Amino acid sequence: MHSSVNDIRDLARLLGLSPTTVSRVLNGKSEKYRISNLTAQKVRQAAKEYNYSPSKIARGLKMDRTDTIGLIIPDISNPFFADIAYSIEKEARLKGYSIILCDSVDDLKVEKELITLLRSHKVDGIIIAPVGIRYEHIINVYNSGIPLVVIDRCFPGLDLPSITSDNYQGGYDATNHLISLGHKKIACIQGMPESFPNKERLRGYIEAHENNNLEIDKTMIVGDSFVIENGYRQTRIIFSMENPPTAVFAFSNLISIGVIKALNEMSLKIPADVSLVSFDEQPYSAYLGTPMTTVNQKKSEIGQLAIDVLFKYIMDKEYRQVVYMKLKTELIVRDSVRNLRN
Amino acid sequence: MHSSVNDIRDLARLLGLSPTTVSRVLNGKSEKYRISNLTAQKVRQAAKEYNYSPSKIARGLKMDRTDTIGLIIPDISNPFFADIAYSIEKEARLKGYSIILCDSVDDLKVEKELITLLRSHKVDGIIIAPVGIRYEHIINVYNSGIPLVVIDRCFPGLDLPSITSDNYQGGYDATNHLISLGHKKIACIQGMPESFPNKERLRGYIEAHENNNLEIDKTMIVGDSFVIENGYRQTRIIFSMENPPTAVFAFSNLISIGVIKALNEMSLKIPADVSLVSFDEQPYSAYLGTPMTTVNQKKSEIGQLAIDVLFKYIMDKEYRQVVYMKLKTELIVRDSVRNLRN
DNA sequence: TTGTAAGCGTTATCAC
DNA sequence: GTGATAACGCTTACAA
């Protein structure tokens, strides 16, 4: 085993050089300081040999940047967010940044604590998919000058840089697809009603009806959460009614799992008895008993753009323009909708 | 807006106290140093009011601990690892630690770089689900005294603390279940053959045959990757043969998605025409066209135990006992296996 | 072409 | 009960 090198000073001593020179070489400033090629070579080789790499922690203290960015999401076990996290991590790493992953478990109090925590970690920037009920604490961070980008749950009025899907369009397309195939009574199983994505999807649902001169039956708008159980429960209720709908629009992939489960139990076939469209494409959507028609969100683009925008703020502290981007959704048509016009 | 407080010194000045006192109060050492209650109160209140919390980066430099742990996984977009990451993050946070998330994209070179990176970040410990081809670089880290726990892809011979599922048992149970229902020709669609979990699952498959005095048809052991396409391709090949098997054992949830897709296309029904058991329970497993019989891994326990073990090492640097834990898997029986004994 | 020394924000040691 | 000071490992003026 080598004599252990813990320090830039250890390494410098070993080489008969000053820490300054070592630091310069290791930071690629050899030419700027006209350090001899020989010296530079020796430094680099020794660093490799003794497996030395500068402490980011000491570096961070001195330079006021840590090469880390904080990521706050409501639930990393939700594939939607896991996919986003994947692309964010990848893009960040490409730029030499590491991710501090924080899970808010969809709890506002936790979210606030996490923001404080990330500030104390001196992250260079924050990407956050907020719980989405209150935003003051987030606006405070942004206004305090810390680079920050909001994803998923946000809206133009917030005055916060944000990347989101066009949930209105997704809701409209899905509903319109059903209507165009002759469906007139379409149940809508919502997620969390107060959340912005939910409101927008619902707006799409409503306007699609209006544009097709279709009356909306308010009793067909049900549900209150993005989880499986909600989809299951509402489906059981709806299809026990006198005049059940011919179709269901599920507002999340988890909701549609619940819908499918309930329909199975009730021996109702998709699409023969009930048609189904769900928000959020998943790898298994195409391989379900009946391949499911879904609204796909561009998850990796959301992550990529979030990083792009964040780095504008990180690289140029003067840049304060509030960027707001809305990404197109895509309707993936499969076999879960019956054509009633035939 | 308040006069800005960036420093412990700013805060001390504002209070007419020394940084030392402020630090002591904020670190809960008021009594130890017999600091007056009044002073302590004032400090705490001012800290809250001015939204001050100590820089973890400066603290880390001084105290030689960063309150962070590094997590290296092959693919955060894989729900199996996302679930593990979820429980690790949750447990770590409970202990006041943050997670630096690193995705190795199943690439050994990247994995090595990430380890160096995490060392330069001075993480207090590392949890790693290795690519699993080579281990020297990981053993080096462990031997250098950095607390480290391996999850998922590891084995007793490694002399590395590790938490893993009992993949042998899972493979045995799944195969035995099929055999007990009268299946004699069972295809086995593998993942990455060199990986330890795969070897163990295969060992279970083989021994289940032996214990039931069943000959193994080597041409029934196929496949080379944990992904969907592999499951699809192998299924198409197998069920184009003269004497196809009556059942398939898929070694991952992605593989079974491919199997289902292929069987659908070939108009083969589960379980009427083909029975199916898959490794790795997923939220949708129960809601597929035919609810699928799966082998469930205790993902959240893996995360929890990894943290528990890691913290033994973190808390007691003298503790060097190599902990190896193998978690039971659970066969979840649903409707995807036909009883041939009827 | 290289080196010296100060300072980043914190806490531990020693002093009073 | 409280405070002055050094030190953690690094980079950057400034010096030579």
Provide an overview of this structure.
Two copies of one chain form a homodimer. Chain A has three domains: 8-54, Orthogonal Bundle (434 Repressor (Amino-terminal Domain)); 64-165 and 299-330, 3-Layer(aba) Sandwich (Rossmann fold); 167-296, Response regulator (Rossmann fold), CATH 3.40.50. Chain A contains twelve helices and twelve strands. In chain A, strand 1 (68-73), helix 5 and strand 2 (98-103) form a beta-alpha-beta unit. Helix content of chain A is 42%, strand content 15%. The first copy, chain A, starts with 7 loop residues before the first helix and ends in a 10-residue tail after the last strand. In chain A, 48% of the residues are buried. In chain A, the strands form two sheets. In chain A, strands 2-1-3-4-5-11 form a six-stranded parallel beta sheet, with helices on both faces. Chain A has a six-stranded mixed beta sheet with strand order 7-6-8-9-10-12, sandwiched between helices. By secondary structure, the first copy, chain A, is α/β, with parallel strands linked by helices. The model of chain A has no long low-confidence stretch (mean pLDDT 94). Chain A is elongated and about 90 Å long. In chain A, helix 1 packs across helix 2 (19-26) and helix 10 (228-238) crosses helix 11 (253-265). The interface between A and B is large, with 50 and 50 residues. Strand 2 (98-103) of chain A pairs antiparallel with strand 2 (98-103) of chain B. Chain A binds a DNA duplex (16 and 16 nucleotides) through helix 2 and helix 4.
